[in-house]
Structures are given as structure tokens and as C-alpha cells.
Amino acid sequence: MKRHLYTADHEAFRATVRTFLEKEVLPHYEQWEKDGVVSREVWLAAGRQGLLGLAVDEEYGGGGTPDFRYGAVLAEEFTRAGAPGLAIGLHNDIIGPYLTSLGTGEQKRRWLPGFCSGELITAIAMTEPGAGSDLQGIRTTAEDHGDHWILNGSKTFISNGILADLVIVVARTTPEGGAHGLSLLVVERGAEGFERGRNLDKIGQKSQDTAELFFEDVRVPKENLLGELNGAFLHLMTNLAQERLAIAVAGIAGAEHLLEITTRYVKEREAFGRPLARLQHVRFEIAEMATECAVTRTFVDRCITEHTEGGLDAVHASMAKWWATELQKRVADRCLQLHGGYGYMSEFPVARAYTDGRIQTIYGGTTEIMKEIIGRSLLG
Question: pLDDT for 299-338, tens place per residue?
Fold first, then answer.
């Protein structure tokens, strides 16, 4: 079915993204996978190409457009290219809104130009060794010392953790209050007492640096408080719909791409003297996946439209995230099976997509959390 989501401007932007991937990303990607981190130079190249800070005001060097569809194009093209290691979506769609919507004028002048140029790489630190989706379990603390905070604690599974120059840290700023006693503090590279631990060894997305972070008596200036004091819970909930939609966009794009390459493969690969595509079971597998992808694509595109118009709520974002990422997982498994032994070989795109995409049902809120949000909205 013809998609009506994008305009000619979006498609021109898509061509720019594809050229960027071909020139600046794909020739280096294998080395980045071995290194466990992308180069800082590619972030600068992304800045020069205008791929960073799409929604940031032009006065700070951004694209000046709040249209989420440009971010969706980026997510689709990076997923199709098999290059999730360069976490531009995290930078633009997840962290960017915190800086643009909560930042003071001084904070925006200080951070957003570098955010848009690629000189300041960002991360957000919520997850702790003992607290994942449950924000009430956060133990990192920030004590008020007059003109500064003293930050203590640790975080884990932090994307961009090795490269990040700015880290938005979720910390407890009151001894009581559960999730409502949390604040957002921005910790900058070089702060005394801020240490990075291991670049964690994951089963997929190996070039996406994911680290442990440690804070020991880190002095954070009061002017680095982002948003309202003790207001982090509301700030986090406000931005989660876009985060989950961005993950859903990558999920359906990943499933569609796997279906495309597998459809080609079964037409070419022969077994028992004829192409795999001649086998009824294979045709049924392809038919089922194609139908599931078409239905999911329709819903995700509708969610993108709703979000672009300012109407996407947390429940429908959770539906999109749950359904699209679980579909991606199922399609990856079925497509690998249809590739046979070749599907288990690392040099085949289906193998890397299988491991790279597995995290999709976990980060940004697990599938189980998505179901809980939806269930509560319906049943109270």
C-alpha cells in the first residue's frame, strides 16, 4: 500500500541520509563493531550534514522543525542499513526534547550549539544495577549544598556512555517521595568524581557504546538542574511517548527490511532441486510476515501522524512500541530460520539483525511494562 505519510521534503531528506550512510558510516562500520564504539568524527560529520538537532531552534544551529517525521526517516534508514551503533535517534528524539523543553535560556546557549554540531554527544542515565523500569527504585542521590549538588551513585546500560559529553542523570533529591522525589541533573565531561566503567559487551549493537557510570561526590552546579526540582518523574513521563514511538518506527522498519532480504533469498536459494519459494510452507511464512508487517505499518504510521499533530498519548505509544518490537523479534527469528545455516553466520545481514534487534523489546520500557500501561488505562 502506498504510504501518504511523507512529503517531497521528507523524501529529499531520506536521500541525504542514505548518502551520509554510504559515505560516512557503512565503510567504517565493521571496524566500529570491533572497537565497540563509533568514532567521534562521524558525529561531527552528522552535525555538518544537518542530521543532529532537527527540532532545535535555528538560532542554536538546529534544523528548526518539530516535525517528528524527519526523525522517523532517520530511524528507518539507519535500521535498513543495519547501522544502529550510531545512536543519533537517542540524541535527537530522546535527549533533545529534555534540553529544548526544559532548558533555561542560559542552558540552551551553553549546550545546544554543540548538541547540533556533534561536538557534544549526549546520554541519559536512568537505569541502575537494582532499578530498571521501576523509577521508585533509584538510589542515586543528590544532596543540596547551597550553590551545588553532591551526586553519589551508579548507573548501568547507559547508551553513549563512553562518548557522552553531557549526561542527564536521574537522581533522588529528597529522602522521601518515591518516584516523585527525583530530579534531572546534567553532568558534564571532566567533572571530578565522574567515572566511566566498562564498555559493556553486548550480544548485538556492538558499536553502540553502552557503559557503567559512577558518581562519587560529584559537584554539580545548581545551574545544571534541568527542569523543576523534584519534577523528574513528570518530565520523564512527558517524553516517553516520543521515545517509544521512535523505537516502534525502528521496529517495523527492521521487520520490513528482514522480510525484503528473506524474500529475495528464498527466490534464489534452491533445495531439493527447486527454489525455496516453491515450497508451500515457505510461501505461507512469507505471506504471514508480509501481512503482519502491513498491518503494523499502518498503525505505526497513524501514530506518527498523531504525534506530529500533537495528539499521541502514552497508551497508543505503548501499543506501537510493544507490537512493532515483538513483531521485529518474531520476524527476525523466522527469517533466520528460512536462511538455514547461512542465517547463523555473522556475515549475513539476517544474523546481525537478529542480535541487534533483540534489545528492542527491552529498552525504552519492556513489553511487559507496555502491557501494564495499556491494561491500567482500560481497567484502572
Answer: 999 999 999 999 999 999 999 999 999 999 999 999 999 9
273, three cell numbers:
532441486
Other C-beta atoms closer than 10 Å to the C-beta of 255 total 28
Chain-centroid distance, C-alpha 15: 21
Give the separation between CA 18 and CA 10, rounded to whole angstroms: 12
Q: How far apart are CA 159 and CA 201, in angstroms?
A: 12
What is residue 23's DSSP assignment?
A: I
Which residues, including other chains, have CB under 8 Å from residue 228's CB and lie 6 or more apart? Answer: 183, 234, 235
Cell numbers linked to 73: 526517516
The dihedral built from the CA positions of residue 78, 64, 121 and 314, taken in this order, carries a sign that is negative
Confidence of residue 271 (pLDDT cuts 50, 70, 90): confident
151 in Cβ contact with 216 (< 8 Å): no
N- to C-terminal Cα separation, the chain? 37
| DSSP run (H or E) holding 275 | strand 274-275
User: What is the phi/psi pair of residue 46, to 5°?
Assistant: -65, -40
User: Cβ–Cβ contacts within 10 Å for residue 192, how many?
Assistant: 9
Closest CA to 181 of 190, 172, 189: 172
Range 18-43 average pLDDT: 98
Phi, psi angle pair for 164, to nearest 5°: -60, 135
* CA distance to 134, 179, 246, per residue, from 88 (Å): 26, 28, 11
Which string of DSSP letters, residue by residue, matches 64-110? ----HHHHHHHHHHHHHTT-TTS-HHIIIIIIHHHHHHH--HHHHHH
φ, ψ dihedrals at 239, nearest 5°: -95, -10
Q: What is the pLDDT of residue 177?
A: 66
Q: Give me the active site residues, please.
A: 243
Confidence of residue 124 (pLDDT cuts 50, 70, 90): very high
pLDDT recorded at residue 179: 75
Of residues 164, 303, 311, 179, the one with CA closest to residue 247: 303
- 244 phi and psi angles, rounded to 5 deg: -70, -35
Please answer whether residues 247 and 317 qualify as being in contact, where contact means their C-beta atoms are separated by less than 8 angstroms: no
